[in-house]
Every structure is written in C-alpha cells, then in structure tokens.
Amino acid sequence: MTALVRDPMRDPLPPAPRPGRRPPAAGAASLALRPVLDAPRRPARVIAAFPSAVYLETRGGPEPRVVAVVSSDAVRLPNAVVVVATCRERPFRTVREGGEAWTGDGRVEAEGLDVKVRRWWDPAPALGTVTPAALARGVRALESALREAGESAVGGLAGHPDPLRLAERCAAGDLAGTVEAAERIVGLGPGLTPSGDDILSGLLVSLRLVGGALGPGGPRGAARAAAREVGRGHGSRAVWMADWLGAAVTADACTRTTALAASLLHCAASGAAGAEVAAVLRAVAGHEPAAPAVRRLLAAGHTSGADLATGVLAGCRAALALAAFRPGIAGARGEAVRGEAARSGAGRRGAQKVSA
User: Fold this and answer.
1) Of 95, 96, 120, 92, which Cα lies nearest the Cα of 106?
2) Is the pTM higher than 0.90?
3) Which of 20, 98, 174, 345 has the fewest beta carbons under 10 Å from its own?
4) Is the pLDDT of residue 125 over 80?
C-alpha cells in the first residue's frame, strides 16, 4: 500500500503559534459598535485604563469612536465589549494609558489585550407598547425609588439651574429653550463623563425609547394624535425632540467634552442605553421593579449613575407631557393638557429634581 505523502506546496503545515502568544479572549460587543468593529483594522490609542475597564479611541471612522472593553462585572456602557473575566481576575493589568491599540476586523487589540467578538448584544431595550397611564405609574415608581435612595441620588450638578431648565423646557415642548439649556451643560463637570453629559445622555435615550414606546390609550389617543401632528415619520413628539436635541448636542461634542462622553452622547441620541439605564427604562415601562434597577444605576461611577437617573427621569416626564399635547397646536411651545401628565408631576412642577 502506498503511503500518503503531504505536498508542502498544495497542503502546507499550519504555522506554529508564536511563543507566549495566547489565543484571543472571547467578547460580547454592543451592536452600537458594529460600524467600528466590522470595519477594516485601524489604529487607536488607550485613553484610560482601570482594573474593570479600558477605553480605546479610534483614529477617524464612525461614532462611537471610543470603544470600552469591560470586565463581566463592570458597568456595561452602550459602547462596551464585555470579556469573560471579572475585575478580580485583572484582565487588563498589562494595558497602559497612552498605549497603541487597534480595532476592526471583529477584534480589539492593545498591549497584552486581544479580544475577538464572538457574539453581539442589543443596547436598545425592548419596551413594548406603553400607554400614557402606564407611563405615569412608571414615572411615579421611579420618583419614589429615587426619593428612597436619598443622598446617593444627588448628582454632580445638584442645585445648578440649567438641568432644571432643561427638564422644564423639554417637557413644555420648547425645542429652542431645550437646546439652549442643553448646550450650556455639554462638558460641564469633571471626569471622563462630565455630569452635564450624563444628564443629557439619560434624557436623550429616554426621550427616544420611551417616546417611541408610547401608544394610544390616554384621553383622545394622545400619542397617536401627537404622531399625526409631528409628521415626518416620527413616532411621537418625544422622538421628534430627541432627533433635534441629539443632532444639536452631538454636532460639536468632540470639541466640547471628553472623547468618551462624546461617544456616549452619540449612542444615547441613537437610542443605545447601557445595561443599568436599560433596566431603569424597563422598570418605568412596568416590566421589572423600579427600586433594584435604580440602586444598580446609582452605584455606577462617582456621580454618573445619579446624573443619568436625573436625565432619565426628565426624559420620561417629558415624553409623558409631550404625548398629552392637544392635536392641532402648532409650534414647539404648545400647552400640555391636564390629566396623567399633570398628576405624575410632568411639566414645570415635575421638572424639579427628586431628592431626599
């Protein structure tokens, strides 16, 4: 019997692995990162490194330009790739701030870090259809949970007038006033994600997702009437507000705030929420208890969780108030009808920050 002989040209031996080179770790990436990670490999740099997360800024390319690689027990941002390792296992111990990195071709690489995307997760929570009456109950539950949280619910801009004015103008449907107040807090505050940007992110994502989930059921089918009035294919006034406000605050965010905060604003404007924010939105929609979800969100960062909660509450109140606009009123300064929106504290009375 003739022995089988390998032809080295047509059937070469597989290359031996390089010494010390480990196979890539498996990661689960947010769908918000698909334009970045499915693109060809491009250079990036490490802009921050912590025991539970590293942040890489890509050079050029689409938003989100900052990719967060996080441990499985870290806060899951909407631009995150989650690795199968806890913070205690120190998965990022060799990564240094300022180091070279690469993203694309389905991978994230840096010194001592090589992550291959094996699956994807959706940063836009499924809220289903929410009636104005159900949303009013959810807003009251969120307010109660924040009151019970006490000092931990006080954000970095507590007492500052502009977040209050932002919530008030947004609930009143005043686009110009909302944009003016928003632009005053872009980049306001210290840290990788300034408080002003966290508030705006919470507001934008709740306007878009909760506003988009609102369905008929209130007096005169308020949400359906609002959709007819707004037109242009938007599902509600809240989504319309999110479109314009998101465009305004992201237009030059890269020059006014940190790279990470700018990417998170882009994510929020498109309806991408972190896992902790998504849980609070599901609670507002009536799909899970509010108190545990609020506690998890408030535990995020130094004041980031409280600032995000402030924005989420303002966005939910505004979505409820905007759904109650009487059809046929033109312009962004129409008056809201009385009813569930008023009873939940939306509008001017409801714009005050929940505190202990």
Assistant:
1) 120
2) no
3) 20
4) yes
